[in-house]
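Entry 12.
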Amino acid sequence: VAGSPLSPNGDVSDWTGTGNFSIGGAGDNVGGTSFNGTSLSQASFDGEIAIVRLYDRVLTSSEIGENFGSVLGQADLTVNSSGETIFNAVVGGTNALSGLDVNSTGSDVEVNAAVNVAGNGVSIASPTDIAIDDAITSTGGDVTLNADSDGSDDGGVTVSAAVNAAGGNIDISGSVTENGAATTAGVSIEDRISTTGAGAVTIVGDGAGTNGRGVEIVDGTSPGQVSSVDGGVTIEGTASGVDRGVNLSGVEIQSTGSGNI
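Predicted 3D structure (tokens):
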């Protein structure tokens, strides 16, 4: 166990820096060389190590998150659920997660707070509905939203907040059956869907029943409510009843690079 003393100003940044009070310190030392740091070089140390830092106050949740991320690095979060799954607080707020994987086998998935991930992206699957009511941001991995994962034609995706994948693909799919008076879409997009670089956008929706619509993209931000650069945009919708397979109203679909639409 190596203990790093308090820095003069108590900053959490000193915990992972290269100064005399930090883990990195000078050379291989924990705590730096000026305070009798413990060497981590292979020549003098072999095995596991627990690093303890002392504070003269209670840390905030943000500071605890910074320490955790600096030592362990980014982590994946996997949620397996047989019931309704609801996110009401930010996921990957202080330190972005590496990835988020949600597998629901029984009920809806609702995202009511921002989700921030890195290279492993976001994957959400549900046999029923998926509702995205706050932003999803991926800085490298794909974003996949798959409602109706069991093929029962009973799961739609509604995106009411921005979804962005920087370099990754976005795949959204859903399928619903609607025989009532209200029109229901397999995929409904009400905010901006965008990728950068080679990332592609693919939206596939199916609507069964008298008022089941495949894909509906309406009332969104402009320009470029559905946007890619080199990956292109694909929108496919089918409707077995009297409604539309694809309904685009007041939106702009764009590919600003070499990608096709």
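Annotation: The chain has one helix and 23 strands. Residues 174 and 186 are 5 Å apart (CA to CA).
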